[in-house]
């Protein structure tokens, strides 16, 4: 299994990404959780254009990517896990948990620091949520996020296999938990014990600041529960809640590719989402 991932990991990631995109897009059309405020034709070109820009930026600036850095660190014995004499499978599990906690803490940080929030808020100005929202992050945020991930890989001494697995899982869960798929309530209750579901993550995209500042997890829901940021449901219900940010309600400005690229450098500065949440309570 490990050798297969090392040999075919990048190809597998592409197959999973495009396959899951197609499956979730079809599932959303079949069982939508909410009515759309904009059509796919209005939102998808911008969201998918941003995803392409992100991929090009990472490829250009980080030719080794996280996998290459993991191999480099392992060869030199860098990182905590490379110092422990424990089974490889346990190293992989601990690395996956450590990387996931890093992404959770990074997410909170991007809500708390003003300059980082200006970048991250582009993700939150989407007026609808669907499978493409999971890839809608400003390229500068993606570059900073990759830098944080590389530092975490080195500090942890994450095995290369765990890095490949984590990137595949993170990409898949981001598309899943941003999707507009209606799951049976019983299925959602069971799944959210193990993974962040669409209903759980949708609360994070509420226009109400106190709800925006909840459910920061992407893969697993445990960090939110352990660290006090879990919120089960939106106050207005999933059909009645408003998605996005109060200061960004113009469909063109929130869905056009060029407008999204310049959004962090224009529009109201406002408070960070955490500051707005504090003043809201």
TrEMBL record:
The keyword Membrane applies. Residues 93-229 form the Fatty acid hydroxylase domain. It is found in: Membrane. The chain crosses the membrane at residues 12-30, 51-72, 92-117, 150-170. Pfam families: FA_hydroxylase (PF04116). InterPro entries: Fatty_acid_hydroxylase (IPR006694), Sterol_Desaturase_Related (IPR050307). Keywords: Membrane, Transmembrane, Transmembrane helix. This is Sterol desaturase.
